[in-house]
Amino acid sequence: MKRPAGVVEVGDRVRFEDGVHVLAGLDGPRCRLVTEEGVGVQVLLLTQVLGARDFAVLDQPRSRRAPVHGPLDGLDGAVREKALAWERHVLEVESGYPGRCRHQAPRAGYDPAVYGLAEREAAKTAELTAAGGPVSVATVRRMRARYREQGVWGLVDGRFTRERSVFGRADPRVVAAIVRALTEQQGRASGTLSRLRRQVAWALEDEHGPGAVAVPPASTFNRLVRAVAEREGLALTAAGERRRVSRPVPVFTPTVAARPGELVMMDSTLLDVMAVCEDGQARRPELTMAVDVATRSITAAVLRPKGTKAVDAAVLLAQTLVPQPMRPGWPEYLSMAASVIPYQRLVSIDARMQGAAARPVIWPSTVVIDQGRVFVSRCFLASAEHLGISVQPCPPASGHAKGHVERGFGSIGTLFAQYVAGYTGNSVAARGSRVEDEACWTLSQLQDLLDEWIVCGWQERRHERLRHPLMPRLTLTPNEMWAALIGITGYVPVPLNGADWIELLPSRRCAIGDEGIRFAHRTYDGPALNGHRHRSTAADGKWEVHHNPYEPWHCWVRLPDGWEQVGWIHQGLVSRPFTDAMWRHMRRVTERRADRAEHEEHLARRLDELLRRAMNAQGEADRVPGVLDEVTGGAGGVEGAEEDTSVHGRPAGHGGARGRAAQAGPDDLGEQVPDGDEDGGSVAAGKAVGAWDIFDARQEAQQW
Asked: Does the domain at residues 264-494 carry the CATH identifier 3.30.160.40?
């Protein structure tokens, strides 16, 4: 009787540990192996031998460890059914039972107790021939042998199991030459397919000799080139290469976050809406946004003139940590108290929630950024480190790595921007002829509209990807998802004081001399610096100074007792607020004809002249040819009295320091007047100080 497959007996030749051995004996769980030359004996555990990586019983067909059924799913239904039918026939010939069920008696002619194997094969041959096709005994025996070797997969018609090449019957040498030619032209100026065909022909002739390999006809060659380019991920043209590089590479697994703040994605883009700048010109502002992956919440969004600074991205981090207050005029249903967020529980933990809008407060653990200059700046990275946030940069040209914020930009374009006056369309082809004439919102007004839409339009809109943790079939809004997850992960209030806000500003190292602190052709001095001039204990002899590019008329220096605000000595010469971009422009267009101190005073007077010409008594913009065009074109708009925003992105007229100053009484205004310095740099008497106090770190911290 033939030994069943997969059985090991004494005397078998086996492969073990890259050598051929003879199984000389079995003793319970142990076996004795003798080398084929008979010069060495090993006593090993049988399980160790059978489980070896290269173990095999030689001189026998390899046994099937498990039936192969998975590949059958990719076959045509008729081919699969034919193979399964042959399996039933083979099993009936070998065992007498059709299939694997043995609860029925064998059919006539197939009982192993009565009929031999040859008789059963003959009976099966006659049955299949009578069923509709000539089948020989040799065919039945061949099917039995293939079934023992490969299982049911061996019974499949071989014409349907051959691997088909995506290139058809093309010569592999031609395909290889096309791949090399396409690879060599990546990133270079590309030509026509006819030129590529000649290059491939020359390459084949150099490699294999003249006439050895024929190049397909032009039409066949063109189809082959496109198939090769698609299969290998190569571009046919230089423009196609740029598109291929910018196309997101598929990720292995989708980005998933299980708790709020686990993963927050940040990015910037131009908003598809024209906003009216201070000079009366319409320009597209830049939107910087943060999106929480777990809840799909837009935790913060800031609109700035084109050219977002590092301080804007840094303060965006802080916005995610503090509640957003209700704006004047907002309806009550936009408040957190009227939303699904567990307001009463949160107020008992964090009193800053009182009067907050229905926007989640999320502590980011990891922030995903791109390679933009704003996000990889020292200011942003230092701010993230100060707040205890990990920063994860994306590889270049990999928008898929921050796909949630990219998709958020698209949603803002379709759900918000296209309904706003001055909509530009999402491409040049979709832009109207006179979009600039339709623009009617200033940057601060557009910020108000966007903030209101985020609270009522985005945070209350159901998202198909947001599912309740305990009810997967229930789709949720970002606010509902945050309410569901906050009960699991908990809420930790993060109080930010004035020093925290100052820490988020750009920093530099400066010396404190007799004249004070000097950088960017501006001098800052005040009584707070007395006693610290030329007395730095640092190795470089300098002090840490933080400044706000939107408020360059003062800075903060870190003294041994903490932060001290120091004013610009020529602040009294300038009648209106300005930005660092305007100051840098004045430096470029003003010729230096005196020493450093006189030149700085001259710059301040020229800047004041520019601001007076740009603004009339009603705060409306007048066109100032030449100089004003260059300022607004380079900086994205003059930062005037009516459109200045605080550094944290909230318009100054809505809860900012300047808005509060406009509503305060004379006593309140008097408290905001900074101390004068010895050089006469104090604010002029009678000046509305509230117009200068766009951002006060300590007052902003008291809001929360």
From this structure: no
